[in-house]
Structures are given as C-alpha cells and as structure tokens.
C-alpha cells in the first residue's frame, strides 16, 4: 500500500498539491490537485487571495485521500518575501500584499541613502530588491503606522498557511532569510538591525529549520478532511526547495526557471564582498545551512504577461515554437525595474526597443524571441559575474522548474555559453519540499542520499552547445 507525503508548491501563477513516495531507491511523484494563482487589486493594492489558497490546499488534501494515496505528512512552499501581520487575537491586520505592489516604491532608495548599502549587505547578505520584506514593513510603518503598532505576529505566506493548518506559529528559516532582516552569520533575526529600522522585534517568531515537525493538523481539520497528517516544515521558500533537488551542487551552476529565473551556485558560506553587492547577488539561506549565492533575473514572468495580453489564446509551447522561425534579433535589458510590474508588458518591451533604436517586435513569435534571447543574454552575464567572483569556471548549468521544459531557451543558453545544459526535473520544487519531509521522517538518511535518488528517479535532458562562434557574441 502506498503511503505518501504531500508537497504544496504555490507559485505566482499556479499552485499544485503533489503526492510523493519512496520505493526502494526511487522517488515517485503524482499531481493530485492544480489551481490558478495571481495577485488582484484590492483597495488599491495587488494582493494574493490567501483564503482561496487555503481552500485549495484543503481540496488537495481531500483529493489525495480520495485517490487512495494515504498521505501522512504535508509541507507548504511559496514564493518569498510576502507576509501577513496578526493582532493579539490572531486576526489578520493586513492582506497578503504582493511583492509586485507599488507600496514599496522609493523606500529601498531612502534606506540606502540613510544607511548605505554596505552595512545591510555585510550583515544580511541579501540583494537589494525593492520588494524585500524590510521595505514592505517600512511601507506599512510609513503609511499605516497603527497597523504595525497593533501587530503581535509576523508570519510569511507559507508560515501563515501552516498556522491555519496547525494553530502553531513559526518563521521557517529559509524564507525568513529573504526578508533582509536576518543576520547571515548568526542565522537569527538581526535585532539591532530591526531596532535601527524602527521595526518591532516582538512580532517575529523563533525560526525553525526545514525538516522540523511542526504539529499534526488541528483536530477540527482532521475531522473535516477525514485524515490525520503531520505538518513537517520543508524549505518554505520555493527556490530553497528547488535547489535542494539539484543533484550536482559542487560542479554545476543552476537556474531555477519559473516566474523568476534564479541563477547561481550553492555555497557553504555567504559571500558578502563588494563585487557581489555591486552585481546585486544574494545569499539566501538554504537547507543544511547552505547558502544560495544567486541573482534574480526577470524570468518567464515576461512571457506570462505577454501571453495574458495577446488577443488569441497562445500556449507557452506555441509561443516557443513560433519564436523558432522568427528572424527578430533585438534584445532588451530584462533586469530593468520597468519590467517588474508594467501596466502592459507588450508596450513596455516595445518602448524599450524603440528607445534603444531597435526594430519593434510586434508578432507573438517576435515578442517571444526577444524575451528568450534577452533572458539568455542576462543569464550569460550573471554566469560571468559568478565565475569572476568565485574565481572558477563551471562546465555545466542545471536548469530545473517549469521553465526547464523550454527546449528553445535551453539550447540558446548552451550555444551562447558553450556549456552543457541539463534540464529537469520540472517539478524540482515539489521534490525538494518532499525531500525534507522524507529526511525528517527517517525515510531518507541525508540530503546527499536524497539528491542521488533524485538523479536516478527523474529524467534530465542534455543540451550541448552547437554554434560556438556565437558564444559571448552580442551584448545588450
Ligand atoms: C521565486 C521567488 C524568488 C523570489 C521571488 C519573490 O518564486 O521565490 O526566489 O525572489 O519569488 O518572492
């Protein structure tokens, strides 16, 4: 009889509940429920519908029971940085506002003016992104100080969903590091920093590591869902879970490819030198206290937005296919802030091309080609920065996540960099989430064992560079 564990993996555009189980040396995975996600405007702010997400999680649990998968534990991961604040009765004082909301506009710049970048980077190791939790909390402090005064509890999105399931409050470590409020060396909340920023220290919970058994489901939920499950903390930051599933951490660069492209390496310590700060690389906390030295690149968000705006229904596969025959050759700098939440992504790309006196992409194929090529240029630049910083070169790039299925982009990257590109598994985040549950339960002994089981259980496609003369050819 199968005994499974459930990974809830919620991304910016969709969520899924995946059941996983081990069979000897193999790992098995089955999708039991999939649902849409997205931020919508509520009283002038882009917010996630957290109650809807909670309902979808419950549906997924029910579906796994109905499908005879006998779930025994569950863990939730989502994107990073976003949170809710609770009052003394544990009622929400805030919506789960999206990191793409404009409430943080200008705040990071103000903080940098006052404190300088070095102080923050040397302590937290976290890259300067306008949407970091630090700036979101300061936005609340500036515009709604009463909310912060009444807040008793700070929970990040997966922490809050775990709280709804169990009644237990915790801040999971990997996600907490993305706030830019944790000290990368003590691996605890940086209370001095919080005080300097005028933020209350009492709202933060003790941090717990991935693999911690949080609690069984609340009794009323057990009755409602007809199952008793343990909640085991995975790496609740999706990128931390995804990278936990990359087998060759010492020999390979990785790209976690989804709404964002996260490109980097795994490291035993944070790299907080000036070059890394100037290149805007981050050092996010990973499983086993490893660090992800990586850069956020705008990612497939750009194509998701283009697809949403196109008058006809285009699948991502169709867009990729169409781009293959496109002769368009213009590129945009995808790392510009203008692409974070433009009113209209197609207009924004076209304006960027116009400003750079390039041909304007108009057809879906040209737009897709422009995005893929521009992403590949940005990947290549980030790879050079990593190799310069750590003073070594890497022979291969391992792409995981939904975007690893984009053969077009994978080949483009192999051709541009001259490196071998390995692609898959596309469900790395769910697998990494499950890995920490299996380790906590003693079904898998260590991260290393888990990673080698992943290697033999999931198919990985290989792309070899084909057009070497193109390497490092054009720059944006
Ligand atoms: C990817 C991700 C990135 C984070 C961004 C915003 O889904 O978690 O790691 O920088 O979303 O939270």
Automatic annotation (TrEMBL):
Top-level taxon: Bacteria
Enzyme Commission code(s) on record: 2.7.1.5
Residue span(s) of domain Carbohydrate kinase FGGY N-terminal: 6-242
Residues covered by the Carbohydrate kinase FGGY C-terminal domain: 253-441
One of the Pfam families matching this protein, by short name: FGGY_N
Keyword line: ATP-binding, Disulfide bond, Kinase, Nucleotide-binding, Rhamnose metabolism, Transferase
Family membership: Belongs to the FGGY kinase family.
Name of the protein in its database record: Rhamnulokinase
Organism the protein comes from: Shouchella xiaoxiensis
């Amino acid at each position: 009889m199968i005994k499974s564990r459930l990974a809830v993996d919620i991304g910016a555009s969709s969520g899924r509940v995946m059941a996983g189980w081990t069979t000897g040396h193999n790992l098995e995975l089955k999708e039991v429920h999939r649902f849409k996600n997205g931020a919508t405007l509520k009283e002038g702010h882009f917010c996630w519908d957290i109650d809807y997400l909670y309902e979808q999680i419950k549906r997924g649990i029910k579906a796994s029971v109905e499908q005879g998968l006998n779930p025994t534990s569950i863990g939730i991961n989502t994107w990073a940085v976003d949170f809710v604040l609770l009052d003394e009765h544990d009622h929400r004082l805030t919506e789960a506002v999206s990191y793409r909301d404009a409430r943080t506009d200008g705040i990071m710049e103000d903080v940098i003016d006052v404190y300088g970048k070095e102080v923050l980077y040397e302590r937290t190791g976290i890259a300067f992104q306008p949407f970091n939790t630090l700036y979101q909390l300061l936005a609340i402090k500036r515009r709604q100080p009463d909310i912060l005064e009444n807040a008793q509890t700070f929970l990040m999105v997966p922490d809050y969903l775990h709280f709804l399931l169990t009644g237990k409050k915790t801040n999971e470590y990997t996600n907490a590091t993305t706030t830019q409020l944790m000290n990368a060396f003590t691996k605890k909340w940086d209370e001095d920093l919080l005080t300097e920023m005028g933020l209350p220290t009492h709202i933060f919970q003790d941090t717990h590591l991935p693999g911690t058994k949080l609690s069984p489901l609340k009794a009323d939920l057990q009755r409602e869902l007809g199952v008793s499950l343990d909640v085991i903390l995975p790496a609740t930051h999706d990128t931390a879970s995804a990278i936990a599933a990359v087998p060759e951490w010492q020999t390979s660069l990785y790209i976690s490819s989804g709404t964002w492209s996260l490109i980097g390496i795994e490291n035993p310590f944070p790299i907080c030198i000036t070059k890394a700060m100037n290149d805007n690389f981050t050092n996010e906390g990973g499983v086993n206290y490893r660090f992800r030295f990586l850069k956020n690149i705008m990612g497939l968000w750009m194509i998701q937005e283009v697809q949403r705006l196109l008058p006809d229904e285009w699948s991502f596969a169709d867009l990729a296919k169409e781009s293959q025959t496109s002769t368009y050759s213009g590129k945009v700098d995808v790392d510009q802030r203008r692409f974070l939440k433009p009113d209209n992504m197609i207009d924004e790309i076209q304006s960027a091309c116009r400003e750079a006196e390039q041909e304007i992409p108009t057809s879906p194929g040209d737009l897709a080609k422009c995005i893929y090529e521009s992403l590949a240029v940005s990947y290549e630049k980030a790879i050079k920065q990593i190799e310069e910083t750590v003073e070594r070169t890497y022979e291969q790039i391992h792409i995981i996540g939904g975007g690893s299925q984009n053969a077009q982009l994978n080949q483009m990257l192999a051709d541009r960099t001259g490196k071998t590109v390995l692609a898959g598994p596309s469900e790395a985040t769910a697998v990494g989430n499950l890995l920490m549950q299996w380790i906590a339960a003693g079904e898998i002994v260590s991260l290393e064992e888990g990673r080698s089981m992943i290697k033999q259980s999931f198919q990985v496609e290989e792309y070899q560079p084909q057009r070497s003369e193109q390497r490092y050819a054009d720059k944006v």
